[in-house]
Amino acid sequence: MKRSLWITVGALLLLIGGWLGYRQVFPASRTVGSLVPPGALLVLASDRLQDTVSARVLRTQLSLRQLPVFDEARQKLDRFLYATADTATVLKFVSGRNIRYSLHSISKTTLDFIFYVPITAQDQPFLNRLTNPDPRQYRVLNHTFAGEKILDLVARGNEPVGSFILTDGFLVGSVSGILIENVAKRMHQSLKLTAAEPDFRVDADHLAGLSVRPEVLQSLFSNVGSLVRLFLPEELNLQFRQSASRSHLIGYAVDQIGNRRDVAALFANQTPRRIQYANLIPQTTATLYHIGISDAPQFGKSLSNLLGSASSDFLRDRFKQIAPETKPLYQSLGPDIMLCRLESPTGALRQILILTAQDGKKLANAYQQIGIRSGAKITADPKSYLGHKILLLNVPELPASLFSSLFSGFSQSWITQHGTSLIVANSEDALQDYLQQVQRGAVWTADARQAELLNSTLRPANFTAFARLNRGQTSVIASWPLGWQNLLDKVDPATGTPALANLENMAYQASYGNENIQSTVVLGRNTRPASRAVLNKVLLQKKTEFNAPLISAPIVTGNLSDSSAQFYAQNSAGQFVLVTPDGDKLVQNNTDGPIRSNALGVDFLNNGRLQYLFMTDRTLYIADPVRISKEVALQAIPLPKGIDPTFLARPRGSQQRNMVALAAHKDGHIYALDRQRRTFVRLMTAPHKDTLQLPFQVMVTPSGMAILGMQSDGTLNHWRENGTQYPHFPTKIERTNEEEPEIRFVGPALLPPGQTQIRSITDEGQLLTINANGLIANRIQLYRPIRRGYFRLFPDEDQTNWLILRTTDTEIAVLDQQGQRRFDVRALQSGRNNIRYHRLGAGVELVSVKSGGFTMLYDLNGRILNDRPIPSDFPVALQFDERTNELYILSGAHQAVQLFSIRLR
To answer: Model confidence over 823-842: pLDDT tens digits?
Structure first.
């Protein structure tokens, strides 16, 4: 009896345990986590993502719905819910509900969302409308998959709207039927007892929660080197809050250290701190990586251990080679190590490494000694630029050898000392650009918005990775997997702007402890979006009147957007007038005629200031501004007979320190201005006399400078710096048969940066691709209209990209690189036209068309940017201020110089 009782009790306990175990694996009331199919890239939760937000709030602060991933999730749910109910009904249904969204990969190029809306018995009227929509507009089909009933909402024309499943506690839906079928399969799979879903807090202080898989983080940071992935935790569970400035949303997370103990060891005893030398970060920085240290010797020891066991054979071997010289360098480091990747219109890598120092001279000497030990040979004295001595250490990947693969991308090191800091650039151009920005104060601390970001939004951290999205040719998005690009980089048909236009800044920060990584993700923007009332409006900012008419376009120095802008103007009396930022008009000197050329800023006098070179018909002038005394010293150099006075070029990459400017001769030769002899000397000689089409192209090569120039008769020259031509050059472009007209060119040839084939086009529209050996690889004859029109290659002013221009006396057509029409402009004034292609940074590209006394601005799709014509007797000067999204236009007309602005975004 007693034995049977125990057997009965045991059987009951076994049944109860089995039932509880079954319900643990197959719960009657499933949680959201049990519904999410495996492999979710991210899961987010919010109770206010579907809320309506006023236009004023969208302009003055960042809303959760303006973040691209959140916005895409919101749109997917909105499209589904608003298909069957009006706005008031939908808002009442979603109000206050903690809705979750999971993102999944459908294919290699497609990502999509599933949404999970909690429901109760009180929601039955709304669910009835969803399952029984208005038959005149929608219908609901159904099918069974994996034992679950799936409902498909389709429009009257059989366009799918979405699929959904109704469970006891959730409305689960998606635009993708495949994903809903995955949910159905998930509902009949056992759950791992160890599986835990993130515990998101959604309340008044927490706007949303976001859980991200480590593989996703790695793919989004894959463009910045393998080491960045080591700084990231294995998983991020972020709680988002609004920043104090309301311009950014901040996600906080504390995750276990996991396999990141090597990184934690790197920052052992290093107190997290803010960026202290932000005055050295240039305004054109597209991406910034910052390491903050408080104990330089300890950091040096930790870094030596890390590099001594580096995964890269090259870095490990190089570090063994330089290890004896590294201790003085590490010990002299200051609190900030910063890598700035500058915006690049060509897509070329332009990097600046900033090493702050306790002893600047000691640090510079140590870096130089390490370069020499690595094999650098110093064959020339340092160059001088804007008061800085510049030295070339021609050895690859020196920064990476000292600070890990995060700092790769330096094929050589151009170094200089600025204050107590050592500045290292990967090219001379990048270093010169950096020094110009620092000299004129175009740095982050001079920008109130950026200073606020640094001082209040970003927190103290050991490591910071910061990216400014949508920068021209440096876009972080371009390096993302194609699925993410397709999901996020869409153009909003209502506004014509990409989905990511609302997001300018993205940062990841981390501080490392013994057990945890404290992470911060910062998403937001500095720039306040323009209201519709001011977008594309031409606003007059300043007008400076003169007593006599102007005879040439004003020359700009400084930034038009701030108080540093001053410009030069010429009047009909031959007076050269300096207009100060305060509006003072100071007559400096007389010139012998109107300015014909562009103005070139160079350090001609080697006095730590930029001088501006320009040409009249007979003379080259050097204007040296002295800001303290508000004067300009004007010096003159006679032009050799035959020099074309319309174009000056910078001798980029030249190994000859005294050559500071290049000009073309009417016979096709290239002349250089010798700073020491103060005269023009012939540098390149054309094989025969014929006009060189402007602008000729100046290129940087490993051995120095190269110049590409097309003569009007089709002779293509490709010169080295020493005046000789590359093999197979010069080459003559010949017609394919005698029935064709003679080959003539009215535009230049161009070797696009980063490419190996030369491009040009004849005046009759034959688009040519020319190999490096001078042979024609391809000819394409473009459509020629009945009216007479000439074709020419149309490079931008910095020769970083090109379009094609077809012109008649009263019409122009802008074509893309394949010869397809982008837009045309008609009814121009014959003989009074000037067309220019501008790439202004931050992704802003436009074409200015001056006809008669007015200028119009067009984007590359032909959309007019200015709401009214801009008065201009000469080609206008343009600058774009990415801090305010405003375009500034300096124009000379009649007896006045006017400064206009246009808000573009």
So the answer is: 999 989 988 899 999 998 77
